[in-house]
Amino acid sequence: DAMVIQNPRYQVTQFGKPVTLSCSQTLNHNVMYWYQQKSSQAPKLLFHYYDKDFNNEADTPDNFQSRRPNTSFCFLDIRSPGLGDAAMYLCATSRDPVTYNEQFFGPGTRLTVL
Amino acid sequence: ILNVEQSPQSLHVQEGDSTNFTCSFPSSNFYALHWYRWETAKSPEALFVMTLNGDEKKKGRISATLNTKEGYSYLYIKGSQPEDSATYLCAFNAGNMLTFGGGTRLMVKP
To answer: Which residues does chain B have within 8 Å of residue A4's beta carbon, measured at their own beta carbons?
Structure first.
């Protein structure tokens, strides 16, 4: 089945220790998104890639970076995690953002910062 | 900043009860309204994409209505089952990115 895969499902890191979260897709979609969801809050868009074009949301901290080496993979790098970065990180894909923008999600990576 | 709100935040019902919850969104620049179901440890799953004022959509025991003029959508579940326990998210599309509400967490007791 075509799908969106996130690894790892659970990640524990130490305060200030860089961490990378991974997302891959078999849908061959043009757009990949990263969302952050803190407890009982709305998922918040951090950034997205439209093909190779990177689009950062205005309020995404500089501590968060992303890479998309090819169509299938996208990575979220947190350079110096703080306690406030503990959250669920969701990856999603869509064919394009211009039509109804139906997005397909991975199961998320829950990040704990000690 | 787009304001998308869902109520209630959480809901406990007994098996067999019917239930409904609300998503409110801006009534201007409407393009589409999405509903997702997110079960614990799984991926959020698309339920409906609603695009026209007055839209009603149905999938099994779950249905949704849309009022774009007043900026709200209702999600109904008829005869709730334990497997309906999940967080239900709505997302507003003003023409490009999705803005999500905080979700309604539904727990159905057997």
So the answer is: 43
CA distance B102 to chain A (A): 4
Burial class (CB in 10 A: 0-12, 13-18, 19+), A32: buried
Cβ neighbours of B59 (radius 10 Å): 11
- DSSP per-residue letters across B52-63: STT-EEEETTEE
Q: Please compute Rg for chain A using Cα positions.
A: 13
Cross-strand pairs, A90: A35
Residues A33-76: tens digit of each pLDDT: 999 999 889 999 999 999 999 999 999 999 999 999 999 999 99
Contact B32/A100, CB-based, under 8 Å? yes
